[in-house]
């Protein structure tokens, strides 16, 4: 089927190339996602940027990795292949934390699962190399970026080599890649052999010649870290401390006493003008029309009416890979750039007046954490917000407030929401409460989602998150502000179970917090060990990489299930797991009828005590009194409770009547 290339999309077929008058493309971009020409998709940014610099680019989206011909549909490119697994790591895309296959892929037409392989970057590169032996291959995107050096792979439970070696690619363009990809393209276009491109920031290359490497830190050999977890943690922390573009050193990782994988320092942050240029490129802002028949690409719905205002995050959460991928230095777009894109959004036929989001990794970061970061970089071994805010931290929401006001004033805009995440501790450190007031007044739709992740300070310290006292102060401030402006709006906290440092004790502490709050979350995220995070390093090694001191880690699926169930202790399906966890932790005091208890006992002993075992009739019930043959017991207990309420005006007497009635019922049975 042919599609009119005058619609502005990049070529996806030979006929498209003919229509555009292109005999041979400069680059062919192979991607694990569907082709969506929108600045929220990495392949669109890189392809459009190359096009703006005079290079021709075609897209091969989700090729059939079992068919050699699928990689040849656009012919051999003049300069090289670009390969990315897509906007997500292919393994995260395919599997839940329990390693069960997901049912839907939002980055595929119609949401169909299975259109890309596991470890997609490696598979695509091997497919290319099988057909084109000498052509340069440059890999990038989140999967390649976070696997650029030896890394722990959760799905195989192994320490894998640098993806550069397993893929057979020539270079990795890591991080966001705008600067490095243009330098690579210009070097290749000048006639330089890809093996000689060893000098570009934001790239990783391989060599056997140690003499070409200078001013570098040598990491432990791959064979060493594969066998020694302590050495793995040490190696990882060296990498973590060298992610800043201003002060990072070059890193060398040896393999087999011959091959060296070399990571150059990260690319420098984009200036505001450069960021504006990236987002002003001629994106079509939707998926390719060839996907209409399949129902389109579901992922577009999340970003179609959203605006990216910044990049990077100095929050430094240990479970997040942003430090490795985007870095800690905030890069922003100008108001003019964002307003111009907003005007484009309002012209869309499907726009209903609602901008869904204005933000980035953290919505309310609109400048570097301190003045020195843009000249001397971020502190390699210190955090800006953890465990306490740095004395040099600049806390200022004024620019973000003004931006939001300008967006609200646009014609056709009814409401501007913020959904990409508010860093509540940063908000609380701002003595000026203007942003909190305007957030509650204009940018929340009944519920505001925030991410405390946990409430045990022992776990929060491992997460790299502020203490629970900071979150509690935010909860109060949010509640007070909504009361002041006359709105009834709620907080929805994101919570994480089984993070390193969390034992059953801390999981129960969280359950008790939720009990007192009167809230049970609908969803709970079990900690997911993805490549190149501090938390993943702790999960694999059982060590804090910064101190090399032991950290408690649960890897047992059953204990992880218990920790997850405790957060949703009111769910009837979780009763057995919650009961087991409480007994195992020695917290039977939380099993009973008191208002402080998490669950009620299920079955009675003949002597009036409580049996820890569960009858078959009780298996799928959250009732404290069973079902079926115990219906009469429940009826008598209900009557007893009502009599107790009438007698005392509270449940205290009702509880006493319950116990007495239970004994009487059992006497009758005997």
From TrEMBL:
Cited SMART domains: Elp3
Domain Radical SAM core: 298-570
UniProt keyword Iron present: yes
Domain of life: Bacteria
Residue stretches of biased makeup (Basic and acidic residues): 604-619
Composition-biased stretches (Basic residues): 656-670
Low complexity composition-biased segments: 620-631
GO MF terms held by the record: 4 iron, 4 sulfur cluster binding; catalytic activity; iron ion binding
Alphabetical keyword list: 4Fe-4S, Iron, Iron-sulfur, Metal-binding, S-adenosyl-L-methionine
UniProt region (Disordered), positions on chain: 604-670
Keyword S-adenosyl-L-methionine: yes
Gene3D superfamilies reported in the protein's UniProt record: tm_1862 like domain
Residues that hold [4Fe-4S] cluster according to the record: 313, 317, 320
PANTHER family to which the protein is assigned, alphabetical: UPF0313 PROTEIN YGIQ
Family note: Belongs to the UPF0313 family.
Protein name: Fe-S oxidoreductase
Species in which this protein is naturally found: Agathobacter rectalis (strain ATCC 33656 / DSM 3377 / JCM 17463 / KCTC 5835 / VPI 0990)
